[in-house]
Design brief:
Length: 290
């Protein structure tokens, strides 16, 4: 039976470490790190994610500011708020919760965020720094994946890592991080890749982030593979009180018996993403107070 990569437990350990650091800062008479969160509109999932982030900030002793705007806010007005946060010395980092309404350009808004305060790691400068020897604020989800592998002492050096999904948020930066920091041999697959199983069966470590529940089945992996399932999709489930359940991109029941390690969904990568957001905020704070 595979060892489950318990992101919930590792994220809790990281939060404890951050809490200790914040306690020391306060004991030294310094202020706590301060993060701002911009939320546009009334998307239910976005509210859930923001509430989880706020809860995590409270838990480690961070200060936080929630800025909520109607979905009708203009792109220019939203950018003015972003520019004000860039200039606010009391704000160490901030995020703009996605998705945004259709009339607002995610790319244009993201590029208005100061890279020094971009704790989601989405700006071009932070993305590009992955390839350098001194990366800046790393994209939160890939950062969380790398931290999870490290804390479970899963070796990436020289291993063949196959990344399925090439999104800017997960797959693309993760492939760079595995290559540059993990020293792995990396294959990246996407929706145009032909004969996907031919590639996934070669993976020592298979990392999947496409948002297609059950995409990876038993016949697509080799025995002993390490599987990191980043995909999270809501599926209707009338038997659940919420009316839905969360499903990953990997058919867990089919694949788990073949794997050496595997992340559950939920409870795997999700908690690590929020933990990485906290780590980035602490780093932004420390960078601004050197």
């Amino acid at each position: 039976m595979a060892t489950q990569l318990d992101g919930k437990r590792i994220a809790s350990e990281i939060r404890d470490e951050i809490t200790q650091r914040v306690t020391l800062l306060l004991d030294e008479g310094k202020r706590a790190p301060h993060i701002a969160i911009i939320l546009v509109g009334d998307d239910g999932a976005s509210h859930t994610y923001v509430n989880a982030k706020i809860s995590a900030c409270k838990g480690v002793g961070f200060d936080y500011t929630l800025m909520q705007f109607a979905r009708t806010i203009s792109e220019e007005k939203l950018i003015k708020h972003i520019e004000s946060l860039n200039e606010d010395e009391d704000i160490d980092g901030f995020i703009v919760q996605l998705p945004l309404p259709d009339h607002i350009s995610v790319e244009r808004v993201t590029e208005k965020i100061s890279p020094a305060k971009d704790v989601d790691g989405f700006t071009n400068q932070n993305f590009g720094s992955i390839a350098s020897e001194n990366p800046l604020l790393l994209p939160a989800t890939p950062f969380g994946v790398m931290e999870l592998l490290k804390r479970y002492q899963i070796e990436t050096k020289g291993k063949h890592c196959v990344v399925v999904g090439a999104s800017r948020i997960a797959g693309a930066p993760l492939s760079l991080m595995l290559m540059k920091q993990g020293l792995a041999t990396v294959t990246i697959c996407h929706k145009y890749t032909e004969n996907l199983a031919q590639h996934t069966r070669q993976a020592d470590i298979l990392l999947v982030a496409v948002g297609r529940p059950g995409l990876i089945t038993r016949d697509m992996v080799k025995e002993g593979v390490v599987i990191v399932d980043i995909g999270t999709t809501r599926i209707e489930d009338p038997e659940r009180k919420t009316g839905f359940r969360l499903a990953g991109d990997v058919d867990f029941k089919e694949v788990e018996p073949l794997a050496s390690h595997i992340t559950p969904v939920p409870g795997g990568v999700g908690p690590m993403t929020i933990a990485s957001l906290l780590l980035n905020t602490l780093k932004a704070y420390e960078n601004g107070n050197q």
